[in-house]
Amino acid sequence: MNASRTNTSRHAVPRPSTTGRTRAARRVAVVGGVAATAVVLLAGPALAHVGVQPVGEATKGGYATVNFKVPNERDDASTVKLEVNFPTEHPLASVSPQAVPGWKIAVTKSKLAKPIEMHGKQITEAVSKVTWTAAAGGGVAPGYFQQFPLSVGQLPEDADQLVFKTLQTYDNDEVVRWIDAPTEGAEPESPAPVLTLTAASENGHGAAAGAKASDAAKAGADKASAESEGAATESAASSDSSDGLARGLGIAGIVIGVAGVAYGVLGGRRRNPSTGTPAS
Hints:
The chain is of the alpha+beta class and 280 residues long.
């Protein structure tokens, strides 16, 4: 009896092992972390590429100031050179860079295959490239960005955008080529900076302003004419009223005068009470 109880109490109840589940959870976490890191690494370059933006709007047929924004994508190197190539299918004859402290600027012009006309003059060459080179020990350091301003024109009237193929050079001799033209539906791996052009307003701003000024002047003239006519009407009415009053007073005076004469005549005809004869 005792032996039976002793044997029964010694039987251990089996417990599930947690070692396998812990290892599986660790593997899932490691795989998830690696996948997330890969997504970040692949998305990083697409989000931090060289771009161009106008100050205000870049209107077709006009002039604009644009900024090329250059971020540094490396943790162990600085950007020391930027080369912006201008589109040959839409040449820009007027390109003026703004000075950037710590950078040297070189503007390269090339002969045009077909001359263009600007302000009544034939233009045979246009800017084909602008290069910024950092002074010794300078450049765009890791974690920073730099803007490079340009004044450009005359912008084409028959295009919706301009593509500027750009090369970014680091101080470790690495060159990143931002030269891929935009494609519909997907962003290229190394997209080139694209300047979007906006349509010019109808008849230009000057014509619209002139029309508004003309309308305002006409409205003012009409108002002045109406006020003048109103004043003339009021003056005529006042004059008529004054003439009527004068005529009325004149008639009243005549009536009073006649009454006075009659009264005097009648008074003179009264008899003198002492003589009983009429007064002469």
